[in-house]
């Protein structure tokens, strides 16, 4: 009696890898071609629905993905205004007296509290608070003019 040969056991499964065919197991073969078919199905649906991919808009100079707006990025106008304001602030700070400029730097650039600034300068906290308010008034006047 002849033994019946199972065709599934004798079939050789191969997939393309870097322009050559590589022998793989049946499971790997099915997973590979199942995924390939899934991708083709998605492309067919996109074609039917008229979906346009940003990569379809690629040119030699730009990528289509660069056309996607970055909603988290600050607006160019905001950056420009901030830059101008910082420059005006730097200019105004150079016109303040040295003591006021040092106090502003301690409190706003170094992040020290009024109490820490008072300890550093050896002055009462109320004096530091008063000097800070006066320095900010001078700075405001310089920025407005």
UniProtKB/TrEMBL annotation:
Pfam short name (any one): Sigma70_r4
GO molecular function: DNA binding; sigma factor activity
Keywords of the record: DNA-binding, Sigma factor, Transcription, Transcription regulation
Gene3D superfamilies from the UniProt entry: Winged helix-like DNA-binding domain superfamily/Winged helix DNA-binding domain (1.10.10.10)
InterPro entries, A to Z: RNA_pol_sigma70_r4, RNA_pol_sigma_r3/r4-like, WH-like_DNA-bd_sf
Signal peptide range in chain numbering: none
GO annotation (BP), single: DNA-templated transcription initiation
Domain of life: Bacteria
Aminoacyl-tRNA synthetase is among the record's keywords: no
Residue ranges of every copy of the RNA polymerase sigma-70 region domain listed in the record: 92-141
PANTHER family assigned: SIGMA FACTOR F FLAGELLAR (PTHR30385)
Name used for this protein in its record: Sigma-70 family RNA polymerase sigma factor
